[in-house]
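[step 3/7] fold_predict: job queued, chain A
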Amino acid sequence: MPDWLPAGLWGLLAGSALLIGAVLGYFFQIPRRLVAAIMAFGSGVLVSAMSFELMDEAYKRGGFVSTGAGFLAGGAVYTLANWLLCRYGAKHRKRSGGLQPAEHEHQGSGMAIAIGALLDGIPESIVIGLSLLMGGAVGWVAVTAVFLSNLPEGLSSAAGMKQAGRSWTYVFGVWGGIAATSGLAAIVGFTVFKGFPAGVIAGTTAVAAGAIMAMLVDTMIPEAFAEAHDLAGLVTVLGFLISFILSKSAD
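[step 4/7] structure written:
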């Protein structure tokens, strides 16, 4: 078996949660408050995984300078890219309510939403490939965290796409393509950085962590709070705690 194949399979597994969530969000009438609560839970899981599986490991291997610089760079690059996409109609791509614009309301918004969804998923998938390089075995806590966060992301966004009048071919084309890209991104994370020094791998991991943090604050947490309201904080804490327990039990 090629050494890059496990990375691709784990990335595909984590990305498949987007497609599962899209099916649930498109074909079933799931209460928006429940969707938001799941989104809050997934946000807490990702924050914990980012802290203990990504940043802590990057610091141990690369030190503060490369980790800090990478973290800031990842957040800055994501924020700039997200700002540009929002101008073309992708601002509410994770919202389950009627906030996503239809194509006739904002021409080009369909493509912007698709690119935005891809932008959100790539850092998480690259991390899965990098985790193989850093630990010699896939970080199953990181895979679990990405899977649990992807499920409500696909669910909420697909529900919003349907309300905006987008066809099922568009919805499942977007999420199916991103699920496949998740596997490819994990392979890239493993193969491209395989021969690089530990400091470079650590810095790249921190870049991905910074992008994930910016993505959470810009897209997932607003949807969670908008619908779950006062419960959002507690559910996020619960997600963080469960991910933290999984992380420490794996040590």
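[step 5/7] annotate
The two ends are 27 Å apart (CA to CA).
DSSP finds seven helices and no strands in the chain.
exit 0
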